[in-house]
Amino acid sequence: MDIQKIRSEFPILERRLYNRPLIYLDNTATSQTPDSVVKAIVDSYTTTKANVHRGVHTLSQEATELQENARRRVKEWINAASTSEVIFTRGTTEALNLVASSFGGMMLGEGDELILTVMEHHANIVPWQLLRDRIGFTIRVVPVTEDGQLDMDVYRGLFNDRTRLVSVCHASNVLGTVNPVKEMIAYAHSHDVPVVVDGAQAAPHLHIDVRDLDADFYAFSAHKMYGPTGVGVLYGKEKWLEKMPPYQGGGEMIESVSFEKTTFAELPYKFEAGTPDFIGISALSKAIDFMDALGVENIAAHEHELLEYTTRRMTEEIPGMRIFGNAPGKCAIISFLVGNIHHYDMGMLLDKLGIAVRTGHHCAQPLMHALGVEGVVRASFAAYNTLEECEAFIAALKRVTAILEG
Ligand code: PMP
User: Fold this and answer.
1) What is the pLDDT of residues 385-399, one digit of tens each?
2) Which residues are catalytic?
3) Percentage of residues in the chain with pLDDT exceeding 70?
4) Nearest Cα residue to 75 out of 273, 200, 236, 202
5) Which of 30, 88, 92 to mutate to test the pocket of ligand 1 (most atoms within 8 A of CB)?
């Protein structure tokens, strides 16, 4: 990959902070957006803004066409069986709330069991707890091993005749671990238990094939994969979506409405109440084009090179370095602490050197608890990061560590 050419598509990377070049290593939180995606948004606003699915007029038809083209693009990208299975949401969080509320509400009863893992993001914990508090089922949790992998023996051992559902992240936003979701799904299916996959951290780095995984649901956010904010996708198997009640009510999701009885629109519109972010949705297809043109495998290979290089240098050259998550084949995410230095102090000083990293609990407080820490510093890489940036990051870490330890 020609990294300099890639970088030229991201004007934000030319920014300077405190008189230094910006080094953006907070890609796990959100990645930057290439010109092609921004241009698609501007083009839509300047040439084709009209509400979708409503008008017979030309602009509305064009806007609808752009949105539905994006749905077809997503369907191909994740290898869904049909566009009926591709629901646009505001992001992974809304997608998981939709599944928990609608599918969870249908599948889980009092005394039933749901399996989650300790490495879940709050977005894959709290929606289930809200439902649990209404229904009264039990949440079982798969722990992680020393190097940050799911304990698969415990996972298998949790299944019993009350197990109704599993929800698991494809990749951890803290440990970087890529979970063996295909194997987990096969095991769950052998017990007739469907599986929801939180793909927020996998979609930017891995080739996603929902049919190969045999996932029942798969959620991800556009903004983490070079796309716009405010758009996400929920893939769901048609056999489930057909049976599920709507999540939100309103315009677009109905077939007919009277005060006596309302009937619902066909899939996927049954789950898309209100005016969608049709401009963001159409721009998502440009983000997919961007990733496709580079090749997801090439992006991942480049990120791995940065990950391995930086991890090795950090471990060898910075005394007291603790890296959380060392699973083989992990995503390009390094969560760490140095000695007794507070993650927040580290992040603040790195920022003053132009380096954007994340600090805190990363919306994964149960995992922090299991790791015995309050928070960590996290550096994460994307297609446009360079080895030179990694060098600068390591040099900055040494400097900051010396200051904070001194
Ligand atoms: N799951 C995981 C694993 C995540 O990393 C995130 C975002 N940090 C989410 C869910 C939530 O995504 P969003 O905020 O885009 O809805």
Assistant:
1) 999 999 999 999 999
2) 363
3) 100
4) 236
5) 92
